[in-house]
Amino acid sequence: MYNFQSKPTVLSRAEWGARSRSKTPRQRDGVRYLVVHHCAGNNNTIENTSEQARMREIQRIHMDDNGWSDIAYNFGVGKGGTIMEGLEIDYAMKAAGGSNNNYYAIHINCHGNFEEKLFDWSQKSALIDLLAYLCSRYGLSESAIIGHYNMSSSACPGQAIKDAIPSIRTNVKVRLNGASPY
């Protein structure tokens, strides 16, 4: 059994200005995976935009351009480490990665194109806090933490995060075993 991890501060959908979803998505079928993604957008645009505005832009793309009912990610981690609620945690959408495994996964999007930029500590530490909480809540080990590339043919979450996943798992494991990774 793991040590309980308290929920980190998470901005609600209302706090970042989310739109209402167009229809109710499918209920999640349990949680087996915690899948890390990146935006893969223009880093200059991301750096010059607030974290909340970036979440609204991702939601706009998912709903208006892709025709999905809502933002496909359950959480977003902004460039400064702000964690934001996306699609409500009890729901999943096949659109987020294209496989039925999405119905068993929680999807977390880190703002930035990590093929082109480094994964800085503010985002990484917020991601570790969120992942430790989710592992604790759902009784998962750190091995449940995967990149989008593990579910489909993709470069997502970018090389910088892909390279960091082993240390992220180690830090989450340390937290779950009762110590602080910091």
Topology:
Blueprint: E1 10-11, H1 13-16, E2 26-27, E3 33-38, H2 43-47, H3 51-65, E4 75-77, E5 83-85, E6 91-92, E7 105-110, H4 121-138, E8 145-147, H5 159-176
Parallel strand pairs: 1-5, 3-7, 3-8, 4-7
Antiparallel strand pairs: 2-6, 4-5
Helix pairs in contact: 4-5
Condensed summary:
The chain has 182 residues and is of the alpha/beta class. It has helices spanning 13-16, 43-47, 51-65, 121-138, 159-176, and strands at 10-11, 26-27, 33-38, 75-77, 83-85, 91-92, 105-110, 145-147.
Descriptive account of the structure:
This protein is of the alpha/beta class. It has one domain (10-176): Lysozyme-like (3-Layer(aba) Sandwich). It has five helices and eight strands, in the order E-H-E-E-H-H-E-E-E-E-H-E-H. It has helices at 13-16, 43-47, 51-65, 121-138, 159-176, and strands at residues 10-11, 26-27, 33-38, 75-77, 83-85, 91-92, 105-110, 145-147. A six-stranded mixed sheet has the order 1-5-4-7-3-8, sandwiched between helices. The chain has a two-stranded antiparallel ribbon with strand order 2-6. Strand 4 and strand 5 (83-85) form a beta hairpin. The relative contact order is 0.21. The mean pLDDT is 85.
Low-confidence stretches: none
First-last Cα distance: 22 Å
Category from helices, strands and their pairing: alpha/beta
Query: Major β-sheet, in short?
Result: 6 strands, mixed
DSSP, total strands: 8
| Percent of residues in beta strands | 5-15%
The CATH C-level name is Alpha Beta
Arrangement of strands in the largest sheet? 1-5-4-7-3-8
Under the CATH scheme, which architecture would be assigned?
A: 3-Layer(aba) Sandwich
Corresponding CATH superfamily: Peptidoglycan recognition protein-like
Q: Tell me the count of domains.
A: 1
